[in-house]
Amino acid sequence: MFGDVWLHLTTLLLIIGALSGRTVITILGMLIFVTDGVTRLWSYLAFRGVRYAHGFSVSRAFHGELIDLEIRLSNRKLLPLLWLEVQEQVPEALPLSGAELLPSHLSQMLLLFRTTSLAPYERLTWRYPLSCAMRGFYRLGPTVVRAGDLFGMFPRRYEVEQSPPLLVYPRMVPLAALSLPERRPFGDVRSRERIFQDPSRTVGVRDYQPTDPLKHVDWKASARRQSLQVRQFEPSTTLHLLVLLNIDTMEHSWEGYIPELLERNITCAASVARHAYDRRWSVGLIANGSFPQSEYPIRIPPSRSPDQLVHILEALAGVIPLTTSTLAELMEEESHRFPWGATIVCVAALVTEPLWAALARVLQRGHPVTVLNTAQRPLVSPVDGIQVVDVGQAPAFSGIR
């Protein structure tokens, strides 16, 4: 709009100067015309050779870790940028130091506003320390960058895509901080040194002996050999521990959720998984929550892989309060895949009757079961053999976000 006004003014002055024969008016019109052309060209070339990059100093961080938010600008041309304006969207959950943030029109974001200039071939880097105060996936942006001519008559803008994501792992604490005993925190479990047979891994068959259970009889092999044959299993010394995480904090999903209880559950689940991993146990995770933009519940089978803890922490970092099913329903689907003799640790702030029933069925199949109750109210197990540990008043949960 400014450009149209200047163009009309230039045309008018040139016409008046030509009709009146006054050289001063004609020269003024020519100066305005040249200025208008130069400013238009300057604005058109403003973003040529300009590079804008933003991101976090790392792609993975632990809860409470200090990292940097980095913004890099460069002008790779001879023409300077006399003014440049940056409007960067920053996650509200990551406290930023060294900058004044403004409210943003985007949910859970704040606006970082800054102006600068760039000389020919100049490079500029801004760094802001931030604290990873809350687990989750975070991105910067979308970002708006504005620049233009000296007079600001023809400003130009472009949007920068969101930065690569930052993943903040959930908080982890020692089991002692959860009021759990350091020795046998989950009751009586099989020792890692004890060798037992794992029925999920068959290595062959042999002749039946009177002490063999009938459930180990291989009927197809028996029919081929015309004598009873039983399956032989691979010996195992690995302790399997499976963490069951209940995302629900209210009895009905339409009631919403309690953020504090959800974060307690995730902290507790991450701490148990870390405890098992550090002792070289085979550890897995099942949760009725899902990743962002996903409708599938979390299923990570038990494993002793070196990357297993990373997989579990990444899953817990991205948990959102939206659930696609109850934990009881998910257990019914997955219980037949539980490793033989696996210890079950259920982390929950809410244990419904269907969940108690599902845990009781798992117990009957030979799985030791412990429930870690993260609610502040004590919980009494209605099922004999299921241990309940109230961790809601544990020191680790004081002031948790």
How would you describe this protein?
- This protein is α/β, with parallel strands linked by helices and 401 residues long.
- It folds into 3 domains: 50-168, Immunoglobulins (Immunoglobulin-like), CATH 2.60.40.10; 175-192 and 238-397, von Willebrand factor, type A domain (Rossmann fold, 3-Layer(aba) Sandwich); 202-236, no CATH class.
- It is built from 7 helices and 20 strands.
- It has helices at 2-20, 23-44, 219-225, 259-278, 308-317, 327-334, 353-364, and strands at residues 50-56, 60-61, 66-75, 81-91, 101-103, 109-118, 123-131, 136-138, 143-147, 156-160, 166-168, 196-207, 229-236, 240-245, 282-290, 297-303, 320-323, 343-348, 369-373, 387-390.
- The strands form 5 sheets. Strands 14, 15, 16, 17, 18, 19 and 20 form a 7-stranded mixed beta sheet that branches. The chain has a 5-stranded antiparallel beta sheet with strand order 5-6-4-9-10, with no helix packed on it. The chain has a 3-stranded antiparallel beta sheet with strand order 1-3-7, with no helix packed on it.
- Helix 1 packs antiparallel against helix 2 (23-44), helix 4 runs antiparallel to helix 5 and helix 6 runs parallel beside helix 7.
The value of Rg in angstroms is: 33 Å
Q: Would you count the extended β strands for me?
A: 20
Number of domains: 3
Termini separation (Å)?
50 Å
Order of helices and strands: HHEEEEEEEEEEEEHEEHEEHEHEHEE
What is the CATH C level class of the largest domain, in words?
Answer: Alpha Beta
**Structure class:** alpha/beta
Strand content: 25-35%
- Supply the number of helical segments: 7
